[in-house]
Amino acid sequence: MSVTVARTAGFCFGVQRAYDLAMELVRSGRPACTYGELIHNPQIVAKLYKAGIPAIERVEDNIDRRAVIIRSHGVPPSVYHALAEMGCEVVDATCPYVQKIHKLAAAYAKDSIILIAGDPSHPEVQGIEGFCERHLTFKNADELKSLYPFLEKNRNKAFVLLSQTTFSVSEWEKSVEKLKKVCTNLRIFDTICIATERRQREAGKLAAENDAMVVVGGRRSSNTVKLAQICGEFCETFLVESAKELYDCDFNGHTRVGVTAGASTPAWIIKEVHKTMSEILRDQDELSFEEMLNQS
Ligand code: F3S
């Protein structure tokens, strides 16, 4: 019976930075809000709300002109402009890795068509799109196929390929291979963040070594959902937002369970999951021992 927690589980550098900036504002007592959810973790969003920092969806929702914390996923330039026009103080918690993508998109906006490997419904991708003049976004290597007719027709034009920071490493490798064949004038920037890459590789390895995996994180967190997909390729995988959800999962027959967590999952939730998971496995073990005794 074992529960193994991934070394890469939990807050990444960008999320920690965003959280620290928000907590600094809480301590200062200045009225503030976040633009969108600071990070995709319901417990942290609720904690900030309780501390007097709500999340707003639109710039015009900031009726009392609070200081605005820009979420770690970043925003398009139009949001910065609108906030400046309103005269709001901006605390920029955009992850520096995302800012690097914004700079690349802006630098090539004039003379290139930007190809973005990412989920168009995710705020990070919507932010990046805002820095492009012409762009095409695709979710995975399969979806890229639908862009072939356009790419072939424009094969001599300049293209730049970028990725969402949490894009799947294997989908990226497949997409690069395909695009190299279709576009003759293509600049490639691998902008998957190193924290994501390490986390995904470790999750896959752990899933291959265990009977089941528990992935802890928000269901709206892109990197958490990707971790669950990766683990699901190797063994039965449960995505939970909190320890109490573990009681709804069926771990019967599983004796070795791996635990990993998305980049926006705080350490205290991972600790709780580890503790509860160990208890569930121990109870299961005792139960099967008792059953064995009753049969003999
Ligand atoms: Fe930044 Fe990578 Fe985290 S992009 S927010 S360090 S997952």
Explain how this protein is built.
With 296 residues, the chain is an alpha/beta fold. 46% of the residues lie in helices and 17% in strands. It is built from eleven helices and twelve strands. The protein has helices spanning 13-28, 42-50, 77-86, 96-108, 123-129, 141-144, 148-153, 169-182, 194-209, 222-232, 267-295; strands spanning 2-5, 32-35, 55-56, 67-70, 90-92, 113-117, 135-138, 159-163, 186-188, 212-216, 236-240, 256-261. The strands form three sheets. It has a four-stranded parallel β-sheet, sandwiched between helices. Helix 4 packs parallel to helix 5. The mean pLDDT is 93. Bound molecules: FE3-S4 cluster. FE3-S4 cluster binds next to helix 1, helix 4 and helix 9.
Order of helices and strands: EHEHEEHEHEHEHHEHEHEHEEH
Overall strand count: 12
Low-confidence stretches: none
Let me know the largest β-sheet.
Answer: 4 strands, parallel
Question: What is the overall pLDDT average?
Answer: 93
Class derived from helix and strand content: alpha/beta
Neighbour order of strands in the largest sheet:
1-12-10-11
Helix content: 40-55%
Shape: flat
Instruction: Please give the alpha-carbon distance between the first and last residues.
Output: 23 Å
Radius of gyration: 22 Å
* Number of alpha- plus pi-helical segments: 11
Bound molecules: FE3-S4 cluster
**Beta-strand content estimate:** 15-25%
